[in-house]
């Protein structure tokens, strides 16, 4: 448990959002918080308003019950139902490839050097829905700089854990994806200050269905780039394979930047449904270029044909 809950408040009055605000106040004044079972301690500096949206966060209930995590099945409620079987402690992470200082770390040692921040990000799934999620994490750039990339490193490749005994979607006949789930970023995308590794959300340790204990968050790209339950981060020379591109190359490219002007071959990407907002009859909202982060990231793609490099 990251944060102590307020005392003396009737539970009927604790909506996810008010509980969150209370925890957030606590976080602001907090000097230390504990990650996963009292093992690691890390200072949470603050909510990083420079990189946070002012939009209302999606209720915690929706963030933790409407998920994509195919290792636990293809349905939106499968991860919440099945991810409890994943053991996240102990957890090892390797950072290797084209770096001067490769390493294998226990999660606690891996996280220890970094100051945790809250980042409230808009997230957009390629399926046409979106959420606003208050993540807790730290810039991926700090991890990459620490291992000292060689000049030949041009991309970063990520891998999710393979644990068929604990991950129901990795057993059985219906194998929608090849395991491990893999993703990748160009090095400059990985070093961008918006790109974080998350270890929590809503001021708490990351729920397993959201990718515990460590997941990537890249808010200007479709959700599938934000790979969950990471065990390996590798600096490489060539553009790495990515799971959804391999599964359906015509539908999912390497870049996967949120782009309302480039439709998915089977549906429009012009609008989105904000999860938690007024059910089926809520108005869809227009999708923004780079998911609303154009000012920060458009320069990364200057001169690129974003219809070809989708
Ligand atoms: N390992 C792994 N990571 C994954 C996925 C997955 O199936 N496996 N699904 C992706 C997709 S499609 C989305 S939209 C986001 C959803 O993240 P959330 O459930 O925390 O909102 O996780 C991404 N990361
Ligand atoms: Mo997604």
List strands and helices in order, with pairings.
Layout: H1 16-29, E1 33-35, E2 40-42, E3 44-47, H2 60-65, H3 78-82, E4 92-97, E5 103-106, H4 107-111, E6 116-124, E7 129-139, H5 140-147, E8 155-160, E9 182-186, H6 187-191, E10 196-201, E11 204-205, E12 215-217, E13 230-236, H7 243-247, E14 271-274, E15 285-286, H8 294-297
Parallel strand pairs: 3-6, 4-13, 7-14
Antiparallel strand pairs: 1-2, 4-5, 6-7, 7-10, 8-9, 8-13, 10-11, 10-12, 14-15
The structure holds the ligand Nc1nc2c(c(=O)[nH]1)N[C@H]1C(S)=C(S)[C@@H](COP(=O)(O)O)O[C@H]1N2 and molybdenum atom (MO).
- The CATH class, by name, is Alpha Beta
The structure class reads alpha+beta
Question: What is the chain-wise order of helices and strands?
Answer: HEEEHHEEHEEHEEHEEEEHEEH
Which fold does the CATH topology refer to?
Answer: Sulfite Oxidase, Chain A, domain 2
Proportion of strand residues? 15-25%
Helix-residue proportion = 10-25%
Oligomer state equals: single chain
Distance between the termini: 40 Å
Please tell me the total number of domains.
1
CATH superfamily: Oxidoreductase, molybdopterin-binding domain
Largest sheet: 8 strands, mixed
Bound molecules: ligand MTE, molybdenum atom
What's the number of extended β-strand segments? 15
List segments where confidence is low: pLDDT < 50 over at least 5 consecutive residues: 1-14, 25-42
Number of helices: 8
CATH architecture verdict: Alpha-Beta Complex
